[in-house]
Specification:
The complex is a heterodimer of chains A (about 575) and B (about 270). By secondary structure, chain A is of the alpha/beta class. Chain A has 19 helices and 26 strands. Helix content of chain A is about 35%, strand content about 20%. In chain A, β12, α9 and β13 form a beta-alpha-beta unit. By secondary structure, chain B is mainly β. Chain B has a 13-stranded mixed beta sheet with strand order 5-1-6-8-9-10-11-12-13-15-21-18-17. In chain B, strands 4-3-2-7 form a 4-stranded mixed beta sheet. A two-stranded parallel sheet of chain B has the order 14-16. The longest helix of chain B is centred in the N-terminal third of the chain and has 5 residues. Chain B is elongated. Classes of the chains: A alpha/beta (about 575), B mainly beta (about 270). Chains A and B meet through loops of A and loops of B.
């Protein structure tokens, strides 16, 4: 395998406490090694440029049935947004729901080495894995959804943590999943009855279990299984004005629970796209709607077992897609555009609706402000991650723009000054109070050190320490002279000049020259089905399902040809 | 105004995508520079000069530029697409997407146009002396933004799906249309001087459709309200006024529900 030495770049690596120091980084046999260990390595000159470890995305939607439905729903996106094949690089197309091939290239250009597909419906695990397999370069894993699963709800009603854990362990194994995702706990199931769970105390119809029980139970099952990642929560009442109290109530479910794992993970609950959950007021009008990011962050900053990602609105035309079926239904009735609701047997549901976050509207810019406020108020940046819940709040390719806004007060003011409701947003939100500009070090704490740790992958990703995976990215950004210019920041983080993934040169001189050898990560929690769960599963499938258990099984050789299994040692 | 003349010298084997034939991309260029513009045939990229002889000079701006396109253009797509100013005169029949997403200026076609003419048109004028194909002034597949503005006049007939998802502007058809007129229409005006077949105004929310001839089969979602006199495109007549599509959502304006208006000559 080729050896590389990246010379004279400005290295930022919070794990080693390195902050913009000029030094060399070497890669050998797919791993980072000490610069003295390579002889005759290919030299990459990074002088005047920024060198970081490959980034880690904790939450986006780039593979799976609802993403594919999104692609089918939006042929118009591909009319003006495409990029022909060139050399090894294959054709790309699409903007908010790019093709699988395109997603891999977008991640690579932004220097991402690992990405988490945030919602995998268990029955469509095969489809999700096929798309991940076809997403080149970036290593991926997927989180199956459990928050509306009939078995989970039955067991958690009676607080049967061991049975829940046994079922989860089985489903992770058959679907080749990575961890526990929970979307609108109970609410998506209630949607099957045309209802919803708006607070965490609303009982789920028929099951008579509350979202609070589901959240707490899944956290406990997660720690019981000692999984690398924590419970990953999209709580109830997403996007509803006044929902911030529900958010705080949900976060409080984790109180008193300690992380138990061998992977260096510290949190027991990850709250995703927190921006959508930090609203005050009682309607979307500029008179009522307001930010409650301060209240949410005051609580968050007082805890030590939580993490969150921002879910930043990027003010684009995008495509929303979530396993929160009722939310998508309501959204489609707000903008009257085409929409899809998708039901997946008894485990989850999903919806897809195109959406325009208008940079000239009050509500679009207020949502934009709230996302940034969350990050700007965070005290420990290793617990806060940059996402756009892609493509829900904005397309994946806009991450660099979000970095610009976080790092440049001037760029934030430009948005507020250009919007005719800018003054209302400054009044109703907290954005105007912050002049904080995140540093490169803090940025690396978010999507490298912190993100890798929260996924339980800090022994592989997020740092340039010798022994880590050989993921290195060189951005055309000079930390000594370019940081005053927001446009340069945005351009640099979206157009890596060099990207080495697992020791292989993927981007050379800003051109994609290889499709890499992507891996799919999954977690083997090791627990066998308890006799009771075994009996329940067999009976329920006979009685209620139109498919058998064999329809779930993801066979490695076809669906996960390049797997990376993480084995969990039970306590 | 300066004129550039393009004459087809070589028929493409497949179909040629020539979205560069616009005053905007010609303005300020020499004949050689124009000949060097890219055109696409399948997955191959060629030069405009491979297919057309180019004479004359364009103006310095799009506004001062007139383009005359001559020859049998039945395999040429996207003439005048996205143009913002100036004038394009097409000598014969064209293939699809003529004047698509046009924003301003003028296109005159002395023949027929293919499907998707004036797709998503935003402004300007198009006059087709012959007939137009399907999806005239409609939205691109999947999009909800059809024709938004401008005036589109067809002297002959139009195919099916005229003005699907139309949101503004005016379409005037001298002859007849096939099925589906103004489907999902949310604004703008469609005038059919001849007859329309069926499914006129299906799922229409706002806007107007005026038919001088007959409609074979009316949509069930339209209700007859009254008869009124209208002057349409210089012609005065009495029309039966229908409102619909009643099966669709309808917005309120100043406390009044807004319906799509369908007029048929009484």
């Amino acid at each position: 395998m080729a050896e590389y030495i990246i010379k004279n770049g400005f290295v930022v690596d919070p794990t080693q406490g390195i902050n913009c120091e000029k030094m060399d980084v070497a890669v050998k046999d797919g791993k980072i090694v000490d610069a003295s260990e390579v002889m005759g390595a290919k030299v990459i000159d990074a002088s005047g440029k920024l060198v970081m470890a490959g980034a880690v995305d904790v939450h986006s939607h780039s593979a799976g049935p609802k993403v594919n439905v999104g692609r089918n729903l939006r042929p118009e996106e591909k009319l003006n947004c495409y990029n022909p094949a060139k050399g090894a690089k294959r054709m790309e197309a699409g903007f908010s729901v790019p093709t699988a091939i395109s997603s891999g290239y977008i991640f690579s250009r932004m220097g991402y080495g690992f990405a988490m597909e945030a919602a995998m419906p268990p029955l469509y695990a095969r489809h999700t894995h096929e798309e991940m397999r076809d997403t080149p370069i970036v290593d991926e894993a997927a989180l199956p959804v459990f928050g509306n699963n009939w078995f989970v709800m039955e067991y958690l009603k009676n607080n049967e943590i061991e049975n829940t854990a046994s079922y989860i362990s089985w489903l992770l194994k058959v679907t080749k999943g990575y961890g526990i995702k929970c979307v609108n706990p109970g609410g998506s199931e209630a949607w099957g009855w045309g209802m919803n769970c708006l607070t965490i105390d609303d009982p789920v119809p028929f099951f008579d279990v509350t979202p609070k029980q589901i959240i707490t139970g899944l956290i406990e099952a997660n720690e019981y299984l000692r999984l690398p990642h924590s419970m990953h929560l999209h709580t109830n009442s997403l996007g509803e004005p006044g929902n911030y109290q529900i958010t705080i109530d949900s976060l409080k479910c984790a109180e008193g629970i300690k992380a138990d794992n061998d992977f260096g993970r510290e949190q027991v609950l990850h709250h995703t796209h927190l921006q959508f959950h930090s609203y005050g007021g009682d309607s979307y009008s500029s008179k009522s709607f307001e930010s409650r990011s301060k209240e949410v962050m005051d609580y968050f900053n007082s805890t030590d077992n939580l993490t969150f990602d921002i879910g930043q609105v990027t003010l684009d035309e995008t495509t929303t897609m979530t396993a929160d079926g009722p939310f998508e239904y309501h959204l489609s009735h707000m903008n009257n555009l085409k929409w899809v609701n998708k039901d997946v047997e008894l485990e989850t549901c999903a919806g897809v609706v195109p959406f325009i976050y208008n940079p000239n509207s009050f509500i679009g810019v207020a949502q934009w402000a709230i996302g940034l406020e969350l990050a700007l108020q965070c005290k420990d940046m290793t617990k806060c991650y940059l996402t756009s819940d892609a493509p829900n709040a904005g397309p994946l390719c806009r991450y660099p723009r979000v970095m610009k806004w976080l790092m440049s007060l001037k760029s934030r003011d430009e948005i507020l000054d250009a919007c005719k409701y800018g003054e209302s947003v400054r009044r109703q939100c907290y954005i105007g109070e912050f002049d904080r500009e995140l540093t490169l070090y803090e940025l690396a704490q978010m999507n490298r050190q912190g993100a890798a740790r929260m996924l339980g992958l800090s022994n592989m990703f997020g740092s340039l320490k010798p022994g880590m995976e050989g993921d290195v990215v060189v951005y055309p950004l000079n930390p000594e002279s370019d940081l005053d210019d927001g446009e340069k920041i945005e351009h640099a983080f979206g157009n890596a000049e060099y990207f080495i993934k697992k020791g292989e040169l993927i981007i050379n001189d800003s051109e994609i020259i290889s499709n890499g050898s992507k891996r799919t990560f999954w977690v083997n929690a090791g627990k066998e089905l308890t006799p009771q769960v075994e009996r329940d599963v067999s009976e329920r499938f006979k009685k209620y399902y139109t498919v058998t258990r064999n329809n779930y099984e993801v066979k490695e050789h076809h669906y996960v040809p390049n797997e990376y299994m993480i084995e969990v040692n039970a306590a | 105004m300066s004129t550039v003349e393009l004459t087809l010298k070589q028929q493409p084997e497949l179909y040629l995508e020539t979205e560069k034939i616009t005053p905007d991309s010609f303005a300020g260029k020499s004949a050689d520079e124009i000949a060097a513009l890219d055109v696409y045939e399948g997955n191959l990229t060629h030069k405009l000069g491979d297919f057309f002889t180019i004479s004359g000079t364009p103006g310095q701006t799009a506004q001062d530029t007139v383009i005359k396109v001559k020859g049998d253009l039945l395999r040429i797509k996207w003439i005048g697409a996205k143009m913002t100013a100036g004038k394009v005169i097409v000598d014969s029949n064209t293939d699809m997407y003529t004047g698509a997403f046009m924003e301003g200026g003028e296109i005159i076609v002395n023949g027929n146009t293919g499907h998707f003419t004036a797709l998503g048109m935003k402004g300007g004028n198009i006059h087709i002396k012959g007939s137009a194909g399907n999806y005239l002034g409609a939205a691109y597949r999947g999009d909800w933004r059809g024709m938004m503005g401008g005036v589109l006049r067809v002297d002959g007939d139009a195919g099916s799906d005229v003005g699907t998802f139309m949101r503004g502007g005016e379409i005037i058809i001298g002859g007849n249309t096939d099925v589906h007129v103004g489907t999902h229409q949310e604004g703008g005006k469609i005038v059919v001087k001849g007859n329309a077949k069926s499914k006129v105004g299906g799922q229409m929310v706002k806007g107007e459709i005026i038919v001088f001839g007959t409609i074979d089969v009316m949509m069930p979602g339209f209700a007859h309200r009254d008869n009124i006199d209208l002057e349409v495109d210089g012609a005065k007549a009495t029309f039966k006024r229908f409102e619909g599509d009643l099966g669709e959502r309808h917005p309120k304006s100043k406390g009044k529900v807004i319906y799509g208006q369908l007029y048929i000559k009484a």
